[in-house]
Design goal:
four-stranded antiparallel β-sheet; mainly beta
């Protein structure tokens, strides 16, 4: 069965960095577009970044452009999100996504 397992969340100060990883299993990873979403308290879940099958095209939410970078390793079945210059408004639960499948989420808290 499809499994998406996120890791790498935590507490970081404003301006800091975190790297999230998602380990995928149960499907042919290289065949699918992969995405990261986030959901802040009281807000709807929103798309953060998406990467095509071969990693050749990436899209980002306007709010994270220039600060976040999505990447994938099709040999290791992983997709990552490098987050730099973090702001308090980046605080949310971050989810790995493939179509209708979701990971359990990892909490990112940006606070001094």
């Amino acid at each position: 069965q499809v499994q998406l397992v996120e890791s790498g969340g935590g507490l970081v100060q404003p301006g800091g960095s975190l790297r999230l990883s998602c380990a995928a299993s149960g499907f042919t990873f290289w065949y699918y577009v992969m995405s990261w979403y986030r959901q802040a308290p009281g807000k709807a879940r929103e798309l953060v970044a998406r990467i095509t099958k071969d990693g050749g095209r990436k899209i980002y939410a306007d709010s994270v452009k220039g600060r976040f970078t999505i990447s994938r390793d099709n040999r290791k079945n992983t997709v990552s999100l490098q987050m730099n210059s973090l702001k308090s408004e980046d605080t949310a639960v971050y989810y790995c996504n493939r179509d209708e499948y979701w990971g359990q989420g990892t909490q990112v808290t940006v606070s001094s």
